[in-house]
């Protein structure tokens, strides 16, 4: 059995699709697909059911992943541990992060990181624009739902559904017919349709965008100020929902958010990048919604 092909198969299963596995491993999507097909041919069984944009494991695929996935992960972890013992994180670590994450979390995380690795000098830039990681000399770029990029690898450290929220006053106005006011990011259309599942069952909301912002933090602030309904993650809306400042109207169907830490390549990944990305993964482990195997 080709262990490289087996590793690629388990990467596809672990990350929930060829596209996500490509981004996480830094390997081309076509190469992963070819390797998995070669593994299926060598074993004489079909491991994945492909079709309709959905990836599903066959019974044989489930059995193979169950028996080999953890073993391969342990081998990789052991190799990483051996390599890290002789290399301690040091030097400048330059990070670009969206404003909502930078202001709410990265100050505290950076303090914890440099306390553990005093030889590292962290620079965190809060920005919501597109960033060219290589040209602008960043070590790590954190972005939500980033477009696939074969030049970058990375790890998803936060994922979950998107929910529609509004102040109690705006939520009360939903009882009336007609479009509801909405606040959104710059890419939002003038009018939109949100299909949601909530306490009242499946609903369709027609929206009229009244304000657009470059940052999701400003979208949340506008929603809190009763300007309109908004689409946020549960993580961003949690405190306001608990305090009653916002109301959860329902979960958007077939839409979710994944926040990734991206870096130039996985090969010979520097200790400072590896350690910081692992800190992100560990920090958000308790707030992730488990991903199912579906979609690339």
From TrEMBL:
It comes from the Bacteria. Gene3D superfamilies: 3.40.190.290, Winged helix-like DNA-binding domain superfamily/Winged helix DNA-binding domain. Keywords: DNA-binding, Transcription, Transcription regulation. The keyword RNA-binding does not apply. InterPro entries: LysR-type_TF_proteobact-type (IPR058163), LysR_HTH_N (IPR000847), LysR_subst-bd (IPR005119), WH-like_DNA-bd_sf (IPR036388), WH_DNA-bd_sf (IPR036390). GO terms for molecular function: DNA binding; DNA-binding transcription factor activity. Coiled coil: none annotated. Residues 1-58 form the HTH lysR-type domain. PROSITE patterns: HTH_LYSR. Belongs to the LysR transcriptional regulatory family. This is LysR family transcriptional regulator. It comes from Caballeronia sordidicola (Burkholderia sordidicola).
